[in-house]
Amino acid sequence: MFRNLLSRLFADRPDSSQLSSQDAEVAVASLLVRLARADDHYGLVEQQRIDQVLARRQGLTPHEAAERRAAAEMIEAEAPDTVRFTRTIKERVDLEDRQEIVAALWEVAYADGSRDAEEESLVRLVAGLLGVNDRDSALARQRAQDDLGLSGK
């Protein structure tokens, strides 16, 4: 199943008609993993936050969310670039939901309680690739900081 998804996501010229909304959700999970790994400190706190985001977004049990994250870890490790994930998401997910994805990215970026330039840079890049404007991304970032008690840090 995942090998087929990888071939669909990472084909040189992907046929968007073959990609499903489920593929987009796997791409979201993989993007969350890629972000959490961006600072070379991919720990339990970030994994748990990804599980929470996946459970919330997709109505998964904690066990199902952990399995989805584990699959996303394998897919992310094989992915040649971030653009393939964002293209799949942008083609299959409406703008309002893409804004929520950016909010989830900020949530994962700050899950470990610290700000990291690599993670922040990646979220900004991904937001642009998903067609989410700077204002909406900044508002999502501020909400994530407030929710995690990081305002002013």
Automatic annotation (TrEMBL):
Top-level taxon of the source organism: Bacteria
Alphabetical list of Pfam families matching this protein: TerB
Domain Co-chaperone DjlA N-terminal, chain residue ranges per copy: 26-142
Spans traversing the lipid bilayer: none
Protein name per UniProt: Co-chaperone DjlA N-terminal domain-containing protein
